[in-house]
Amino acid sequence: MIKALLFDVDDTLLDFEETARLSMRDLFEKYDFPFDDAAFSVFQAINRGLWQDLEQGKLTSEELHRVRWKIIFDALGIRFDGERFEGEFRAGLAEHAPLIPGAREVLQACKGKYVVCVASNSSVDQQMRRLRLSGLLPLVEKFYFSESVGAAKPSAAFFAFCLNDLRLGKSEVLLVGDSLSADVRGALAYGIPVCWYCPQEGEIPEDAAKVPRIAALSQLMDIIGRMNAE
Ligand SMILES: [Mg+2]
């Protein structure tokens, strides 16, 4: 029986791509760097690669923050202090919190029925501010951030911390997230139920084929209902 829900934040409850685009756009305008879809695509590709390295333990978040904009500026041919820009970019990320469609409604529907938690690999200050800005904060009961937990998704240590804190067993906690590597495979390896939020069509890897999948957050309550009926 599912008693608690662990929601990933970026690209599950809050639209990280749009948040990053807005922060990058604001700063590129400030410094008069050319900003367009191609420049944002360069950010997306490099950022995605760095986050994969982070999830695989090849990189710490401090290292990611140190090198991210240096690599992006090198790729874009812009001469600027990447570390200084990183600080401003991250401050900018905290200023935008566009919602994923249905995020508020799904948390409202879950509140009172389940312990609603967030489980995120991003920094505490930034995510708390964004959850507040988005209006989701009052709908969340517990907060698990890699920074404060001392381990990141998909590591077993991260999930063990959450379950221990919730005093719940593995079959009682459902993870909801968009990342195949951090959320889906993390939950599968640790042995807790998972619902894959996957709004884009695409190939489904074999190991994730049996995982309940939703294309819209509004489908989540049905999935939980079905799990609890089994
Ligand atoms: Mg995510």
Cα shape? globular
Helical stretch count? Answer: 10
Domain tally: 2
Examine the secondary-structure arrangement and name the CATH architecture of the largest domain.
Answer: 3-Layer(aba) Sandwich
Alpha-carbon distance between the two ends: 9 Å
Under CATH at level 1, the class of the largest domain stands as Alpha Beta
Quick tags:
about 230 residues, alpha/beta, Rossmann fold, DNA polymerase, domain 1, 6-stranded parallel sheet, 10 helices, about 10% strand, binds magnesium ion
Short description:
The chain has 230 residues and is an alpha/beta fold. It contains ten helices and six strands; from the N terminus they run E-H-H-H-H-H-E-H-E-H-H-E-H-E-E-H.
Give an overview of the whole structure.
With 230 residues, this protein is of the alpha/beta class. The protein has two domains: 4-15 and 98-229, HAD superfamily/HAD-like (Rossmann fold); 16-93, Putative phosphatase, domain 2 (DNA polymerase, domain 1, Orthogonal Bundle). The chain has ten helices and six strands, in the order βαααααβαβααβαββα. It has helices spanning 16-31, 37-55, 61-76, 82-93, 103-110, 124-134, 146-149, 156-166, 180-190, 220-229; strands spanning 4-7, 115-120, 142-145, 173-177, 194-197, 213-214. A six-stranded parallel β-sheet has the order 3-2-1-4-5-6, with helices on both faces. 33% of the residues are buried. The mean pLDDT is 95. Residues 8, 10-12, 177-179 line the site of magnesium ion.
